[in-house]
Amino acid sequence: MAETSTSRRPLIAANWKMFKTPAETEAFLKEFLPKVPSDLNCDVVICPPFISLGLAAALMKGSSVQLGAQNVNENPEGAFTGEISPGMLAAVGCQYVVIGHSERRQYFGETNAGVNKKMLAVLKQGLIPIVCVGETLAEREANSTLAVVERQVKEALLNVPSADTKKIVIAYEPVWAIGTGRVATPQQAQEVHLAIRDILKDQYGSLTSLSVRILYGGSMKPDNIIELMNCEDIDGGLVGGASLKSDSFFELINYRQRKAVER
Ligand code: PGA
């Protein structure tokens, strides 16, 4: 039977990476937030650098936009210089946290086992993890995309309590498409999204598989979001570059309206 995506609320998340000072964050939010309609029918999350989380939380109060962090340490507290715990993120007003981004895997040595520890700690804290998976160009060219992604998904979700599986958000981000302007075609993305949904179905059953939101990330922009979002198993986006300007991020979150106008 064909699956429908009607029960999954779209989610568009901004991953600002190491961009924007607190003053620039404030300027963005003062321009962006008043434009966001309360009946958008899409969850919107912004993930600024750690130092701007408190400020962003204060500015977002009363809006429908939610706050996320870009990383977290799995320990509740302790002598871990430079790190931030799940409890600290919750205390400052985060609802979401990105874990296992490919830049963290590539430059900071994060492994699937480490991502799993973060996953369990984040869920225990009641935060929603946005766990990133995706193959490198060499892995795609070696035809190992699905094997790599399967391993990343299974190992990230190891020992997750079944009551928590539906909350998880997965971001499929082919590494070769991140920040390169080279976007996956809707067919390439849909193939992997469907494979991820099949893995979830095998491991946790249909309900979880149909509930988990799977975002696409990698050069998502106002001019390609509509065709990506038309794919059955793509439920939103994790957006880097195109989320840094309030006009372009607004066009992204408002893609449904634009779609209606373009028809
Ligand atoms: P990009 O980044 O949109 O700039 O490609 C996406 C991401 O890294 O999450």
Characterization of the model:
The chain is an alpha/beta fold and 263 residues long. It has one domain (9-33, 42-262): Aldolase class I (TIM Barrel). It has helices spanning 22-32, 53-60, 86-92, 102-108, 112-125, 137-141, 145-156, 186-204, 206-211, 225-229, 246-253, 255-262, and strands at 11-15, 43-47, 65-69, 96-99, 128-133, 169-172, 213-217, 236-239. An eight-stranded parallel β-barrel has the order 1-2-3-4-5-6-7-8, surrounded by five helices. Helix 7 (145-156) crosses helix 8. Mean pLDDT is 95; it is low at 1-6. The structure holds 2-phosphoglycolic acid. The site of 2-phosphoglycolic acid (PGA) has 13 residues, from strand 8.
How many domains make up the 3D coordinates? 1
Helix percentage range = 40-55%
For the biggest β-sheet, the strand order reads 1-2-3-4-5-6-7-8
Distance between the termini: 29 Å
Structural class by helix and strand composition: alpha/beta
Tell me the β content. Answer: 5-15%
CATH class: Alpha Beta
Number of helices: 12
DSSP, total strands: 8
What is the CATH architecture annotation?
Alpha-Beta Barrel
CATH structural fold name: TIM Barrel
Identify the overall geometry. globular
Largest sheet, strands/sense/barrel: 8 strands, parallel, barrel
Order of helices and strands: EHEHEHEHHEHHEHHEHEHH
Low-confidence stretches: 1-6
Could you say which small molecules are bound to this protein?
2-phosphoglycolic acid
* Alpha carbon gyration radius: 17 Å
CATH superfamily: Aldolase class I
